[in-house]
Design brief:
heterodimer, A: 75 residues, mainly alpha, elongated, B: 379 residues, alpha/beta, 6-stranded parallel β-sheet, 12 helices, 19% strand, binds zinc ion, coiled coil (chain A)
Chain lengths: 75, 379
């Protein structure tokens, strides 16, 4: 029960595994899995950043601007 | 480009006027849950997307995952459990219930799950201590036996004396865009500003387009500055010392957990939802007593390469007599004897004694504002 999170296995080439293992010596990472998880999260996050930002409808945005003007946040 | 909302989309859990009226006209048909001010504010933050991607209070899967991994069960970084506790089961899973703050129906909730939890585990994992002298731990120990998870819809705003200063993520996002800011650094505060804060904020602002000062209003301890004092003090500081086109002030309501490193990440996530791209992580951020190391919160951010907001670690500022100005430990070569540390506690004592702090500690205009209040502190 200590760890309910589901894990799965992916394959990476053995030489790459060895390379990572060597690389993480003396860092805060305790396992190759931890390191690979870290790197993948980082890569995915940077890919997502490229995606288009959410937009509001024009009507909605106009309403918000009105309130911001009324409150003195916009001229 | 301002930050994308956490989890990808800005959550908004407001109902259309007609639906709202219908629900309110049928309110007697729903089981009722009374909630405290802190939970009401959590609801408001969920509904307006301050807590995106949460659409409601955590179910057990997400709750356990937050405790164990500091992530929701879908792997999104999330460090503070946002939960609703009850003492008695007067309704079932699958029911819709109404949440009341006092006599005011605040929200409808679709009960997905009612579950038990281990308070000591909660305390230990979130606060790193089970000591009930810790205010966050004490709060957990005072909670009900069960937690209720499920999505919510906001029906009424929680009464807010500072509505004029309280912006929602949709509003700050439009504001930042209108001002042409692409990079924005957010500053979290619960205090009136002294020169140390000003130094840290301006050091950060040097690297981005805009500064977003975001004081937290909410539950206060005896001796804290009152909310209106903090707001007025910042307004005055802005008027005299901040560039008009590069700084803005808006408040957010939130009940502090004092969870130190974990809460620092939570604070960053909230500001990401407001559109900030950077977040200043202070010394002993969100700490209390000496449960956390002074810079422990900085290390915590190493766990989140996918956070989506950049933490800025700026060392505590102090006045150096030899340098003749505000500096920090990284840039001043002089020994301790030249340093004057600016402590909030010390300033408070001076102000209470009617003594004006020296100008290198607090701007005289800010002092005047505090003095203009007959009772600036919570009693
Ligand atoms: Zn110096």
């Amino acid at each position: 029960m200590a760890d309910e999170k589901k894990y799965t296995t992916v394959s990476i080439p053995k030489p790459l595994y060895d390379k990572i293992k060597k690389r993480i010596e003396g860092t805060g990472f305790t396992s190759v899995s931890d390191y690979v998880t870290y790197v993948l999260r980082e890569v995915l996050a940077s890919l997502e950043e490229e995606e288009k930002e959410e937009v509001f409808t024009e009507e909605e945005e106009e309403k918000v601007k009105e309130r911001l003007r009324a409150l003195g946040y916009l001229d | 480009m301002v930050s994308k909302p956490h989890g990808g989309r800005l959550v908004r859990r407001l109902v259309a006027d007609r639906t709202r009226e219908r629900i309110l006209s049928e309110q007697k048909e729903y089981p009722a849950i009374k909630i405290d001010h802190g939970r009401a504010i959590d609801l408001e933050n969920i509904a307006h997307g301050v807590y995106s991607p949460l659409k409601g209070f955590l179910t057990s899967d997400d709750f356990q995952s937050v405790l164990d991994h500091m992530r929701l069960s879908d792997d999104t970084p999330w460090t503070i459990p946002i939960v609703l506790d009850i003492n008695e089961r007067t309704f079932d899973e699958g029911d819709a219930v109404l949440l009341y703050y006092g006599d005011l129906p605040i929200a409808r909730m679709h009960v997905e799950e009612i579950y038990t939890y281990d308070k000591e585990e909660f305390a230990k994992k979130v606060f790193k201590t089970t000591d009930s002298a810790h205010p966050g731990v004490a709060k957990v120990y005072s909670m009900g036996k069960y937690l209720v998870g499920g999505e919510i819809e906001l029906l009424n705003e929680v009464p807010n004396p500072f509505a004029k200063y309280t912006l929602r993520p949709v509003e700050t996002r439009v504001l930042f865009k209108e001002r042409g800011w692409k990079t924005i650094v957010a500053f979290q505060t619960r205090n009136v500003p002294h020169l140390g804060h000003e130094y840290v904020q301006k050091a950060a602002l040097t690297f981005v387009d805009g500064l977003f000062i975001n004081p937290v209003l909410g539950k206060k301890k005896k001796g804290d500055y009152k909310d209106e004092v903090i707001i007025k003090a910042y307004e005055t500081l802005f008027e005299h010392y901040y560039p008009k086109d590069a700084a803005t002030l808006a408040t957010v309501r939130y009940e502090m957990r004092y969870a130190g490193p974990r809460e620092a990440v939570h604070h960053a996530i909230m500001r990401k939802n407001f559109g900030a791209t950077h977040f200043i992580v202070g010394r002993d951020h969100a700490g209390v007593g000496d449960y956390y190391g002074p810079y422990e919160a900085w290390d915590m951010f190493d766990n989140f390469p996918d956070l989506g907001i950049t933490p800025m670690f700026i060392r505590e500022a102090f006045y150096c007599r030899k340098c003749g100005g505000m500096v920090n430990a990284k840039i001043c070569p002089h020994p301790e004897e030249f340093h004057v540390r600016i402590s909030g506690t010390k300033l408070r004592k001076m102000i209470m004694a009617g003594e004006q702090p020296p100008e290198y500690m607090m701007r005289p205009e800010v002092y005047e504002v505090i003095r203009s209040f007959e009772k600036p502190f919570v009693e």
